[in-house]
Amino acid sequence: MFDPRKLDDIARQLANSLPEGLRHLRDDAEKNFREVLQGALSRLDLVTREEFDAQSEVLARARAQLETLSERLERLEKEQSAPRE
């Protein structure tokens, strides 16, 4: 789901942001940052953009159908309550 290269880039940036005195720990820190990021992101309940867009379309169609049915029901209720001759 996540592009591993993006996680690598973020981990590398974090490791490179360490102070000069800790540069010798850079490789270990980068590995640890990557693992922490992967773990945190894997626990999130995320969907891809494609899945989100598809579900948005489904929801829009359902809303349109609901509106149509609601109008139809309102019309039928009015017809039922109208005085008959």
TrEMBL record:
Q: Which residues form a coiled coil?
A: 52-79
Query: Which keywords fit this entry according to its UniProt record?
Result: Coiled coil, Cytoplasm, Ubiquinone biosynthesis
Q: Which organism is it from?
A: Natronospira elongata
Stored PANTHER family: UBIQUINONE BIOSYNTHESIS ACCESSORY FACTOR UBIK
Q: Which domain of life is it from?
A: Bacteria
Name any Gene Ontology BP term: ubiquinone biosynthetic process
Quote the pathway field: Cofactor biosynthesis; ubiquinone biosynthesis
Q: Would you tell me the Gene Ontology cellular component terms?
A: cytosol
Q: Is rRNA-binding there in the keyword field? A: no
Where does this polypeptide localize?
Cytoplasm
Which gene specifies this protein's sequence?
ubiK
Output the InterPro entries linked to this UniProt entry.
UbiK (IPR007475)
Lineage of source species: Bacteria, Pseudomonadati, Pseudomonadota, Gammaproteobacteria, Natronospirales
Q: What does this protein do?
A: Required for efficient ubiquinone (coenzyme Q) biosynthesis. UbiK is probably an accessory factor of Ubi enzymes and facilitates ubiquinone biosynthesis by acting as an assembly factor, a targeting factor, or both.
Record's protein name: Ubiquinone biosynthesis accessory factor UbiK
Q: Provide the family line.
A: Belongs to the UbiK family.
State if Lyase is listed as a keyword: no
